[in-house]
């Protein structure tokens, strides 16, 4: 955590706006490094205004930081985060070049969940394929192309109020990779049985900060990423994948260190490939 640096949330413009982020040299990202000239713009969108937190200086907004706040989880997976003199929570990794809540829903951590569904890559005879250079077996994961940025990603999503992470993992996978929002109740029931079976033996891969382009100095995404591996392709092989909700496309993607993915999703895949001693 000490040496963690974020990059994707320091790109020139804040996503979907023309607001420029303040340029920060790598060594000045951590808050403890003095940066007297630091003067970022403030941006808090009105999106989801009835679900999002109020402004920090609204006298009726009295959040319980670093703990469960009613049905909102304001606890970080990392250490406790600091609240600055003006009452703003500070991004635990450091400066991002923009103040405010951005387009995120909550000040402080915004919790997400990422289901990493994997299988071995096989040839048409069903034999597991190895990479010609590493000689290690190739893992594949179900990836979606995000509608907003057109980047490939793990089909994750935000944890709803009162929702347990295991529910978010299944819900997001079903909505984005199986298009269940457009299916009838019988079809959903059939998918649910397979997904329950597949998600029964999951392994937690990562819990913590995500270097997401939407992060700001005061609002950021944290995730629980879990791996659901189908060793024999018996469950996933029968699922009719179809993009839905925020996803424009869905497909099996060979896991490899050169993939260009959304946010810091590549880091979660690295952990998965090492766990299975697969090609990386
Ligand atoms: C990511 O944002 C998380 O890792 C998760 O995949 C995703 C959740 O945001 P939405 O897909 O709901 O926009 O960085």
Describe the structure.
The chain has 280 residues and is of the alpha+beta class. Helices cover 14% and strands 23% of the residues. Strands 5, 6, 7, 8, 9, 10 and 11 form a seven-stranded mixed sheet that branches. Strands 1-4 form a two-stranded parallel sheet. A two-stranded antiparallel ribbon has the order 2-3. The two termini are 23 Å apart. The mean pLDDT is 93. 5-O-phosphono-beta-D-ribofuranose is lined by residues 112, 114, 153-154, 156-158, 210, 212, 221, 223, 246, 263.
Observed structural traits:
280 residues; alpha+beta; 7-stranded mixed beta sheet; two-stranded parallel sheet; 3 helices; 11 strands; 23% strand; globular; binds 5-O-phosphono-beta-D-ribofuranose
